[in-house]
Amino acid sequence: MHGEKDVRKKGGIVVSARNLTVNYGKKTVWHDANFDVARGEFVAVIGPNGAGKTTMFKLLLGLQQVAGGEIEIMGSHPKRGNPKIGYVPQKHGIDNETNVECVELVKLAYSGNKLGFSISSRKENDAALHALESVKALDLANKPMSALSGGELQRIFLAEALVSDPEMLLLDEPLSNLDIRRAKELVSLISSVVKDRNVTTFLVAHDINPLIQFLDKVIYIANGKVAIGTPDKVLTSESLSELYGTHVEVLHDSMGHILIHTLYGAQDEVKENDYNASKR
Amino acid sequence: MLLNVDIIYMLHVMFRYQFMQHAFEAGTAIAIVAGIIGYLVVLRRTSFAAHAYAEIGFTGAAGSILVGINPVLGMLAASLAGGFGIAILGKRAEHRDVEVGSVLAFALALGLLFLGMYTGYATEAYSILFGEILGISSSNVFLTVIVSMVIIAAAALVYRPILFASLDEDVAEAKGMPVTLLGIVFMLLLAGAVSIAIQVSGVLLIFALMVTPAATAIRLAKKPVYAIAISSGISLFATWAGLIIAFYEPYPVSFFIVGIVFATYLAVRIIQRK
After folding, report:
1. pTM metric for this prediction
2. What's the CATH class of domain B22-206?
3. Inter-chain residue contact B160 with A89, CB threshold 8 Å
């Protein structure tokens, strides 16, 4: 997994934030963030619930106002409907009652913004099948989404994001309903997509462990602040204690898993705030 | 052979009556529209909103009876206004059961008041509540066909964006699609479809045309185009068969249509349980 350095050299900086601050209503979510992400990097966005991870995505998607500082994404300001971005939200209207074929969803992601009625076009179909193939889900093309497991569904959503051939992927909590084995399988698939397509990828997660071996960078959001760096720089007791403003211990087990232990209830407090914020 | 002759003779007798011709013309247009819009209703899980428009439409119809306007126009105007109202509150409003329910209860009460103030014969109210397709006038047939054609054309135009936004609204929004505008368009299409469908099923039985056939179809087909075709097919079959039965039997046509739709739904669910 040390080939990333080469990928990084290939591309320049695609996301650059300087003293970036965002608000939710009148409340500051996080402030004075500085980070750079290069083309083709695989970046995890980690932090407690409600710390502002999804807000980071809304910002990149142009759905969230900047309260202070600057952000540049692929050479311009964030804009709504950026065709260079493929987005997988945390919530979908799709569940175990959506008896619609997978390939239909991927086709709609390709041409759903077009007016007029068309039964099916060759181009649309080919694009959808190609996207499904790149996430190894060709065998699921004609299955209804209602019959898929959580991991299979996430692969379909990934194909939905890839069908428009984006330069950047934003994946919001794709691992949240998967057990550790399925999570690792999906992350390994995502990682190979990142490399094959040289697509810059941000992935929001609350558990770093399934990801850690594949990542180029970690963005850790907590306590209204943002830290960025390689996993071994950011995920240390010193760096996280500074971020939380309280004593944090990063524990390692024999399997290479880590456990971030926030003392004095700091994390619980943040969680509570976030829960209230998410309820609106 | 004998059976064929009988059916042709039977249809021949039936179509000699103009009210039967009218019922078939309007019923056919309504069944197709209900099948198309119903699929999107089921996909978006907004069947409660469909019910709400029907009851708001009742108020409009009762109000127009009171002031002497065509009740179908009143129905159309009231449910379109209601549709616009719910849509601008955003997609979440479609699922705010308590708010929508409270407003529609008041709308129904208002309709009751209008009917109370009306000194004419109360049979009008009965036909709005339970449908009376056999009594449809030729001008209302014309109005129904025109509204149906507008809805079908509009639905075909915005088919893909609405389908995508119904399946995966957050992704559609991130792609820069106007999801709020699409929500308004959908709600207006739904309100229009409901207000013409009321003539067949009535306010209280609107579910049977706008929801049940589509809910059956979505279990049978996983391609949207096929599901829409099946949904319209079930509505058409139920409407035609219901009209034919009601011509020979002295019972309300709405019962037969709703009964056939429900039997189809039940049959599909039972078969799929195995």
Report:
1. 0.86
2. mainly alpha
3. no
